[in-house]
Amino acid sequence: MGREATCEVRSGGKTSRGHARLEEKELLFKGDFRLKIPFAEMKTVEAKGGWLRLTHGGGTAELNLGDQAAPWAEKILKPKGRLEKLGLKDGQRVSILGLDEEKDFQAELSARGLDVSGRLRKDTDVVVVRMSAQADLQRLPALRDRIRKEGCVWVVWPKGRKELREDDVRREAVAIGLVDVKVMSFSDALSGLKLMIPRARR
Asked: Looking at residues 43-51, what average pLDDT do you find?
């Protein structure tokens, strides 16, 4: 999840105290006025004197974040790559299921020193599996049984579809003894939820 803060914000000649949130691709603010600033529209990002100062297509914005100004600027300027968000590291045993059409993802994997397979294997560190309907969730027990105790299953599904939603994945995961620990935007078309075996059961 992104960073959050209750802070003072100045923008467009107005000042308001409210709630700021840093998402994967944009900064949001809700107070006496609202802001939604995509990273792609930010022209300059600077942390100075506890203030995060941004210039963007719609003007300027300044957030009084104190000692969090620099970490927020760092997160905007140097966002994590998809493999880093997924927790994929060199040498890990990874199974990628149902994502053959995600050519960009395949290229990212090929460029890293990962032990990648298109089939489900025993003692896997990370499983990334695409699902598109609630019936697909019946695969979760088999996936759970093939990961290491400290491993994880990333379920990814199409955004904005009624056939399968985040709450559906989470509910089924809890029912079979898994917990969700992270959500991410896997791509423009897919969302992802990370599932793990609870620490008490490892």
From this structure: 96
